[in-house]
């Protein structure tokens, strides 16, 4: 009988705190030993010249989410998680959208049915609160948090999703009492509606108008308001997909006041600009997302936020629609008016390669910082750490092996999502995740037709960590109770797991 199922040897291990040479021994999906010259494995991977890092955790993806009448999201759980695997990820966290007038748990049951048995990565759900009735706030959310679903999202924009300030405060108060983490999409819907109506009266309805109807001020104001509401409710929040320096300044000022906030940004705000929405023949529809890409100055500010710690999360906000499709970007109404173009772009497969190339290889950030904002901090923020997000004895063997020397050009033809284009087409990158190992299931990039059984599925999310442990504003929690379950079809139930938070 072999001591290990798998040994990864001769690689350079990188975590959020260390970079060192060692081998990793894996047994039954867990890291059981880290050391030199390990022997006795059924299989060995030689990682010479490569980095061995925690598999990416993308905590902001949209998969199989209802998107309006006649609109269909391009990815189901099979294609979305397959694309994630090829991008170096081992866990993704999509959203369960509460349908208005429908219990949260009923919506969650539907998402579980869509995901179960279909996923190539581990999957866990955030809950979008769109209808915060007394029953939802007083009964459903506390019960779901008790079951382990401890991350909520609220919107300040989109007519069918947005909450008013009173409902946001009520949701934040429930989060404070139950220990849930709240993510906030910050854009001022009333200002957006005002600008859209003005543009339409002027006949300005091409995709480029999407950016001018959602200017920086719309995001900055809503960011300030969300942070003020969190300050009033005395609860930590996550400000998602920040696109510019003015919103970053609101985050920094709030932290100085003692507000507990984590910032997140995405690859579109490092690589795209509003000029991309000006493409001929409605090509700009490919880049419609919210907040929209800004300008080169905003790109530089977002890089500064990554370098200095304003952002502790780097996510994709993967929200794919087909471009040339009546159910996607060029739906009948979307062909005539930008307001009907579905918001969102694909990105789960290119999130890590873009940041590795432009961040690590171009010398903007250290390798440890890359690991922190693409894996470790996601696990800490949403309660998966230390079971995920690190390389340590006892952790899940969710590992990505990166080859820093490979150079490629991003082409949609090489990607695996369900969309028919990539907004990053033609972008040159250096460094790719050549192999992924999700709990011992080795995924080789060159073996596309030989996949193992579908990966784990997390029917219960987790207990969350105090978000402040990421930014060091208060002492971290000690002995936090982590609860995590894997696929029902693997026959594993709710697993107790204890660990300690780290202060970065």
From TrEMBL:
Q: Does the keyword Hydrolase apply?
A: yes
Top-level EC class as recorded in UniProt:
hydrolase
Which residues are the signal sequence here?
none
Show the Pfam families listed in the entry. Answer: Amidohydro_1
* Entry comment on modification after translation: Carbamylation allows a single lysine to coordinate two divalent metal cations.
Q: What is its EC number?
A: 3.5.2.2
Q: Which residues form the Amidohydrolase-related domain?
A: 51-404
For activity, the cofactor(s) needed are: Zn(2+)
Q: Give this protein's Gene Ontology molecular function annotations.
A: dihydropyrimidinase activity; metal ion binding
Q: Which InterPro entries match?
A: Amidohydro-rel (IPR006680), Hydantoinase/dihydroPyrase (IPR011778), Metal-dep_hydrolase_composite (IPR011059), Metal_Hydrolase (IPR032466), Metallo-dep_Hydrolases_sf (IPR050378)
Specify the superkingdom.
Bacteria
Q: Which UniProt keywords apply?
A: Hydrolase, Metal-binding
Q: Name one GO cellular component term.
A: cytosol
N6-carboxylysine PTM sites in chain numbering: 153
Indicate the family of this protein.
Belongs to the metallo-dependent hydrolases superfamily. Hydantoinase/dihydropyrimidinase family.
Q: PANTHER family from the entry?
A: COLLAPSIN RESPONSE MEDIATOR PROTEIN, HYDRANTOINASE/DIHYDROPYRIMIDINASE FAMILY MEMBER
Q: What is this protein called?
A: Dihydropyrimidinase
């Amino acid at each position: 009988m072999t001591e290990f199922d798998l040994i990864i040897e001769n690689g350079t291990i990188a975590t959020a705190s260390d970079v060192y040479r060692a081998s990793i021994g894996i047994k039954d999906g867990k890291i059981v030993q880290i050391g030199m010259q390990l022997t006795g494995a059924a299989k060995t991977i030689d990682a010479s010249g490569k980095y061995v890092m925690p598999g990416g955790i993308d905590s902001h993806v949209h998969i199989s989410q209802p998107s309006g009448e006649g609109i269909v999201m391009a990815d189901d759980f099979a294609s979305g998680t397959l694309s994630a695997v090829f991008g170096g990820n081992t866990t993704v966290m999509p959203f369960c959208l509460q349908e208005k007038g429908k219990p949260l748990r009923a919506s969650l049951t539907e998402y579980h049915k869509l995901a179960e048995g279909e996923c190539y990565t581990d999957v866990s759900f955030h809950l979008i609160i769109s209808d915060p009735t007394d029953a939802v706030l007083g009964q459903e959310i506390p019960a779901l948090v008790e079951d382990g679903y401890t991350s909520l999202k609220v919107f300040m924009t989109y007519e069918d999703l947005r909450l008013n300030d009173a409902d946001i405060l009520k949701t934040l108060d429930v989060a404070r009492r139950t220990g849930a983490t709240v993510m906030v999409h910050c854009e001022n819907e009333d200002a957006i509606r005002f600008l859209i109506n003005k543009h339409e009266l002027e006949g300005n309805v091409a995709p480029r108008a999407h950016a001018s109807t959602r200017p920086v001020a719309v995001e900055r104001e809503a960011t300030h308001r969300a942070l003020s509401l969190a300050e009033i409710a005395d609860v930590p929040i996550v400000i998602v997909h920040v696109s510019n320096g003015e919103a970053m300044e609101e985050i920094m000022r709030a932290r100085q006041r003692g507000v507990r906030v984590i910032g997140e940004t995405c690859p579109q705000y490092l690589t795209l600009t509003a000029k991309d929405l000006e493409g001929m023949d409605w090509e700009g529809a490919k880049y419609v997302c919210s907040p929209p890409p800004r300008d080169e100055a905003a790109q530089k500010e977002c890089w500064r936020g990554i370098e200095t710690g304003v952002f502790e999360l780097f996510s994709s906000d993967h929200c794919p629609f087909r471009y040339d499709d009546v159910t996607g970007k060029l739906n009948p109404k979307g062909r005539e008016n930008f307001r009907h173009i579905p918001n969102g772009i694909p990105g789960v497969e290119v999130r890590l390669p873009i940041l590795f190339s432009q961040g690590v290889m171009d010398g903007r950030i250290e390798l440890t910082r890359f690991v922190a904002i693409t894996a470790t901090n996601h696990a800490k923020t949403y309660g998966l750490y230390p079971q995920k997000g690190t390389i340590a004895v006892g952790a899940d063997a969710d590992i990505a092996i990166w080859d820093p020397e490979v150079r490629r050009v991003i082409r949609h033809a090489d990607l695996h999502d369900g969309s028919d284009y990539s907004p990053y087409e033609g972008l040159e990158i250096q460094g790719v995740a050549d192999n992924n190992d999700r709990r011992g299931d080795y995924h080789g990039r060159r073996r596309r037709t030989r996949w193992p059984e579908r990966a784990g599925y997390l029917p219960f999310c987790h207990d969350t960590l105090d978000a402040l442990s990421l930014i060091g504003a208060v002492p971290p929690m000690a002995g936090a109770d982590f609860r995590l379950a894997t696929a029902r079809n693997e026959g594993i139930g709710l697993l107790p797991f204890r660990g300690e938070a780290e202060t970065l």
